[in-house]
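Dear colleague,

Thank you for sharing your sequence with our group. We've completed the structure prediction you requested, and as agreed, I am returning the results in plain text so they can be pasted directly into your records. Please verify that the sequence below matches your submission; if there's any discrepancy, let me know and we will rerun it promptly.
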Amino acid sequence: MKRKTARELIAESFRELADRKSIDKITVQEIVENCGYSSATFYRCFADKYDLIAWDHTRGVAEIMDRIDGVSYTWQNTLLDGARSFYEQREYLVNLFQHTAGQDSFIRHMTEINENALKKHILSLNEGRGLDKNEEMYLHVYCLGTVLMTCEWLMGKHDLTPEQVARIYEGSLPQALKRHLYKE
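Please find the predicted structure tokens below.
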């Protein structure tokens, strides 16, 4: 049996508090009191609560991306599982979208995290060969667009199922990136 790490327990504590409270109102002291750790333990794990949020989202994205094998779990499966995961977490994510701003904006962090995860996956498929400048920009625009569309969807602007959202993610993927992701 794998025991949860301090990071995982602190993240769970934060999510529990986020179920009841606006993200911007949650303090580090509340997070550690909720899980029985000290502030020192928190700061050994994270720089601040926004670092915690970014770590937690990065971990979730990596769990989905790491499943891709090109045979039984494809890029399309990744998009669908990502959309389903976002939908299941929609109340938490809406709290993040609405109550983080500026440098600590979750939308900014989510875009960067998704972009890095997708770039890492493409590099693994290309045996380490990077993307050219145009492909880098396509990747950035794609991630910005899908994150903003996800935000609008979760906040109720678009009445779509996770399956429909996954098809939109797939359909909006630039051709320059498709050649990397669909050569599996």
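Summary note from our side: The radius of gyration is 17 Å.

Kind regards,
the structure core
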